[in-house]
Amino acid sequence: MFIPIFLLTILFFALITGGQPPPLRGYLINCGSKTDIQQDGITYTKDDGYTVAGNLTTLNRHDILPVLTTLRYFPYGPGKHCYEFPVTKGAKFLIRTTYFYGGFDGGNEPPIFDQIIDGTTWGTVNTTEDYKNGLSSYYEIIVAANDRTISVCWACNEHTKSPASPFISSLEVMDLDSSLYNSTDFEKYGLITVARANFASESNFVRFPDDPFNRYWQPFIDGNPTVEAHANVTSSEFWNRPPAKVFISGSTTSRGKNLSIQWPPFSVPTNRYYVALYFQDNRSTSPYSWRVFTVLIDGETFYQDLNVTTKGVTVYGTEWPLSGDTHITLTPRSDMPVGPTINAGEVYQILPLAGATLGRDVMAMQIFKQSLRNPPDDWNGDPCLPKEHPWLGIGCSEEEQVRVTSLNLKGLSLIGTLPKEIARLTALKEFRLSNNKLTGPIPDLSPLKGLEILQLDENEFEGPFPDGLDTLPNLREL
Ligand SMILES: *[C@@H]1O[C@H](CO)[C@@H](O)[C@H](O)[C@H]1NC(C)=O
Ligand SMILES: *[C@@H]1O[C@H](CO)[C@@H](O)[C@H](O)[C@H]1NC(C)=O
Ligand SMILES: *[C@@H]1O[C@H](CO)[C@@H](O)[C@H](O)[C@H]1NC(C)=O
Ligand SMILES: *[C@@H]1O[C@H](CO)[C@@H](O)[C@H](O)[C@H]1NC(C)=O
Ligand SMILES: *[C@@H]1O[C@H](CO)[C@@H](O)[C@H](O)[C@H]1NC(C)=O
Ligand SMILES: *[C@@H]1O[C@H](CO)[C@@H](O)[C@H](O)[C@H]1NC(C)=O
Ligand SMILES: *[C@@H]1O[C@H](CO)[C@@H](O)[C@H](O)[C@H]1NC(C)=O
């Protein structure tokens, strides 16, 4: 799957100074670090406790942002490696992954690999171009928690050249208020950030604390005239809570003319997108201070006769088709004494989610994992999904309701016990555990009615062999 590349510099941010902003809610992680650090008024914590996978390293450079100097990498191999965050089920998050290769493995080319959100492949991480230009790269996605944890994972793909290792420099999981982007059905979709712009701005990114969710609004400037607004916008009156600061600058054109903008400033793959645009009349409040114009995207009417006032207004499309270059045209109503104006915009690619393994199976596997002293180190995130990257030794059904159908854990030297909850994996057909160091009793496996193959030999189980195995209708190998 190809994902639009959304790669920007964050190497040269101005430091934020001034009053006490409200705290940022969420997890802000400085990956690979052994200490917490401060950057731009935000505390980035060490990643202890959120992941057990991979190795830490520090770049031998002092000219880069503190958050980029350490990273965690996951040595080349199969399986996915995850960070897991406890969250409130149903809550919505903006997740940002930031990458700066810095030659940590002694090479010249950054590795290419996949990033994964819960059970869904989010996209390919390719930081080659940015790295060549001396920049770091970031990717963002908005998702809702379908369970009480959210996992962000990395895995090798067909472009990962052995022995290159997937890596991550910083990971942010920002809590979004429920009204943000709420026209999207987050049980089915995620929103991948394609572009978020502050039009006609020449300054730095607008972000925290101006944006309480630390969204990055990039400055975008083209050949159109610019205006500066003087009135105030109340951010909380907009469901998406755009920061008031992005309304200050706007692109405009003279009276009677169309305003035409090519944005996002790169071509996008054919897909459906969530598009939100933000406008404000720049003039001081008066009974006549509004502007009416029609918004077109690629020649199609996006909104007819939009009345833009000094209080600001937004229009959005939840599933707007885009392909290649995107042209936004604002056509003033013929009686307007002023030209149209635009202040900010957001474009997200709609990502269908791959779903999740049946919760009961996930729970059973979690309990099994906890009963092992040395579970395989890729046993993180969703057990079955994405289907290219299930947990080591696990086979799953491909039906709509994904279930664990086989466990092939022969010879992994597993130490621990077999919990009784394993019998909740009622779709299990094959269960091979030979040649491990499992101890304790063998639990009652009689609920596993579909079981065809059961291999428990070469372990250190104690106690009697449980009853009921002879009643399993499909068992053909024991
Ligand atoms: C990574 O960590 C593992 C265990 O924590 C260790 O066995 C391995 O040698 C490390 N790899 C490298 C390249 O440092
Ligand atoms: C990664 O990006 C570079 C530079 O843009 C490009 O040349 C290369 O084809 C990309 N690789 C993959 C696998 O997408
Ligand atoms: C989105 O949130 C706003 C503000 O809370 C609310 O008025 C609106 O009904 C919500 N829309 C949907 C589709 O849930
Ligand atoms: C904007 O808001 C600030 C603080 O609320 C106020 O001092 C200022 O007068 C307002 N400006 C306008 C043009 O309304
Ligand atoms: C402005 O755009 C409208 C709608 O696309 C088009 O009909 C009109 O000809 C354009 N006007 C000018 C002056 O380009
Ligand atoms: C508002 O924008 C118009 C152009 O659309 C410009 O001519 C005018 O000077 C601006 N007014 C203020 C107060 O900046
Ligand atoms: C635009 O909105 C303002 C404020 O809601 C209203 O007073 C005005 O009549 C509207 N103008 C048009 C042309 O619809």
Automatic annotation (TrEMBL):
Database matches in InterPro entries: Leu-rich_rpt, LRR_dom_sf, Malectin-like_Carb-bd_dom
SUPFAM superfamilies: L domain-like
Span of domain Malectin-like: 29-350
Topological type in the membrane: Single-pass membrane protein
Annotated GO CC locations: membrane
Annotated signal peptide: 1-19
Sections of the chain in a coiled coil: none
Protein name: Malectin-like domain-containing protein
